[in-house]
Amino acid sequence: MKLRDKVVMIAEAGSASGMALIDRFAPEGARFILNSEAGTDALVPALEKLHAAGCPAIAAGADLCSPRETAALLDRAERELGTVDVLIHNRRAVRPAMVETCDEERFLSVLNANAKSAFVVTQAVGRQMAAKRSGKIVYIGSIHAEKPTGASFAYSVSQGAIKMLCREAALVLGRHGINVNLIELGPLEGDDVRFRSGISALYEDYRYKVPNAVLGTYADVANLALYLSSAEADFLNGADVRLDGGFLMHYMDHKMKRPQHETTGGAP
């Protein structure tokens, strides 16, 4: 088991990525701190699944933008499970926001949900990890740290902030034996709706802009996160791992890999 008795904190455990992480990490012997902005009710299915499998776990609805609430959660977890060995920050809130019309409240709501929560929880968990001179921090971010969405500039700004937070934290926390890395997640099912834009065609026919015309899944994310959380990745620090199937390398639409009936005009 790669994570036997390791305490894993998942920042947004009630999300699709959170559930995939739980499914992948549980067989590896992890103990879980499950948090959700939506509150503990959203975590009941995950908690029941883990308890049935004999995996120690606690659930919380802490506001990770609040140093006080974050510290209280970590104090409780230390009493019940131990200090954090692995932090997975997987908050990726998206709200439509255009540069010329977005108000300050909307901009800050996205920045806080994604980037501020990453900073606050990294600082708090980093202290625990530094004291024992070991730990893994994995941010699940986005390719939109590099490429505009055309739908939510605030989301892209938040992802760029997380990318640089990863590098800065790796530089400092790495001196204490802590690895900090980023998964830049590419297109998943439903992202054409999530990033629908009136000015960008990026997500039109987006599945065919992946060279093999196959979208990623949250299981793919969980597999990579497990590697980054394990001893196998001990020499990987401050890395941006792009998990997008080659989406950002797309060049010309007429070169896309489409099903044969679409290229020949035949019936499906």
TrEMBL record:
Q: Which UniProt keywords apply?
A: Oxidoreductase
InterPro entries according to UniProt: NAD(P)-bd_dom_sf (IPR036291), SDR_fam (IPR002347)
Please name the CDD domains in this protein's record: SDR_c (cd05233)
Among Pfam families, the record links this protein to: adh_short_C2
The family database entries (Gene3D superfamilies) matched by this protein are listed as: NAD(P)-binding Rossmann-like Domain
Does Oxidoreductase appear among the keywords? yes
Which family does the similarity line name? Belongs to the short-chain dehydrogenases/reductases (SDR) family.
Name of the molecule in the record = 3-oxoacyl-ACP reductase
